[in-house]
């Protein structure tokens, strides 16, 4: 089983996420901070997570990547999803 991590943009500099049906308790200043908090929430219970950004499925990502290199993962996501 892989949990689904859905990240959404609330404002130009505010993001939120939900894991399955559990939503984060607030907003984050960046995608990177969403990834860090989500990885901490999931602990070491799962090897990977399914990623969605702004409703689009991105694929699976190893939780270890979210823990060790959240900035790099966030940059890969953001380079494909620049605001209009």
Explain what the structure shows.
This protein is about 35% helix and about 35% strand. By secondary structure, it is α+β, with helices and mostly antiparallel strands. It has one domain. A hairpin with a 2-residue loop joins β1 (about 5-10) and β2. α1 (about 30-40) crosses α3 (about 70-80).
Task: Quickly describe the structure.
With 84 residues, the protein is of the alpha+beta class.
Domain unit count: 1
Separation, N- and C-terminal Cα atoms: 35 Å
User: How would you write the strand order of the largest sheet?
Assistant: 3-2-1-4-5
* % residues in beta strands: 25-35%
Shape: globular
Secondary structural class: alpha+beta
State Rg.
11 Å
What is the overall pLDDT average? 89
As a percent range, the share of helical residues equals: 25-40%
Unreliably modeled segments: none
Main β-sheet description: 5 strands, mixed
Number of helices: 3
Write down the secondary-structure element order: EEEHEEHH
Tally the beta strands.
5
């Amino acid at each position: 089983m892989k949990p689904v991590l859905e990240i959404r943009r609330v404002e130009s500099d505010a993001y939120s996420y939900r894991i399955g049906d559990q939503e984060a308790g607030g907003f984050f200043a960046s995608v990177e901070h969403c990834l860090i908090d989500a990885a901490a929430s999931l602990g070491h219970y799962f090897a990977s997570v399914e990623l969605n950004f702004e409703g689009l499925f991105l694929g699976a990502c190893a939780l270890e990547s979210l823990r060790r290199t959240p900035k790099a993962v966030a940059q890969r996501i953001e380079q494909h999803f620049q605001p209009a």
